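Pasting as-is:
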Amino acid sequence: MPFYRAVGEIPRKRHIVFRRPDGGIYSEELMGEEGFSSDSSLLYHRFPPTAIVKSEPATDPLAEAEVTPNLPLAPRHFRTTELAAGGDLVTGRGMLAGNSDVRLSLVTTDRPSELYRNSVGDETVYVQSGTVRFESTYGVIGAGEGDYVNVPTGTIHRWVPDGPVTALVIEAAGHIRPPQRYLSRYGQFLEHAPYCERDLRGPTEPLVVDGPEAEAATPVLVRTRGGLTRMTFAHHPFDVVGWDGYLYPHAFNIGDFEPIVKKTHAPPPVHQTFEGPNFVICSFCPRPLDFHDDAVPIPYNHHNVDSDEFMYYVAGDYAARRGSGIDIGSVSLHPAGFTHGPQPGAVEAALGAERTTETAVMIDTFRPLDLGPAGRQCEDTAYAWTWAR
């Protein structure tokens, strides 16, 4: 994270004695990235975070998910609204596409998840509909439609929906951060950035479980590069009375993204919101369209020769895609090796338009995306030929 935050009770200096009301000493836990040479936070637990009483293998719902290359090469359209609800925001993920850098999954559920720790990489969860309470060792974040919730590697957390929730889950094999070009050399958002620190919401107070639950052995589902383990802690891990640092979960609403516009159509980098290992996340938001007198106010045919483009359509009117079958809840996958653009007739129909109402989340990957089982299950197999109609 690019700025400092302190929540709850912390001592005046790091790594000095910090006593509990009963005279004992709180247990420190330093959560740090890149061998403690990058961002970190220091958490103060009532109980040792190291005390475990059991560790056993757990069934991984995605372990047997067969992925297949996008061959023969073709643009794809996934109708995600056809996928069945089930599981929770951890175990109910249906993989649409993925590679060794990132997995992209869709989940619809109304069930709370068990406690979970992803020790492979950061996660960004985009809430398409519904509301959910994100609980973690850092505290609580309330999230709803349009929120990105960024979860740092190693964070113990759970998701508690308030009714049905649909979300796109982006699981990285590393860290997800704001683009470096938006930040000063010291980490402050610059004036040209399309969002800033004021738009980011983090926990505001500790989440401490009390009573018998605090003293009870508590299982946590832990994902590592080797698979899933269910690790049982001697006490409930929600026992942090305070923390400070630059590393913590936070939410950002897509409605707070400030689109950058030009006289003529701007390419996707102006929509970039976050970056991960070998991929970027972009937000396409309602905005004024290009204002040159002769502008063509929709995307030109384009071919990102180094990337696959995964686009999740979440709200608004997709004028450039009219006639393709694309609608809210659709995902298009346009792979490197294929030139894509507006549907036939869309250019002529768009001339003179002044605004767009579309909202979409795009992930561009710099390695090819394989097709996941959920993607194959809800694919519109006629999509590839819609430009030839």
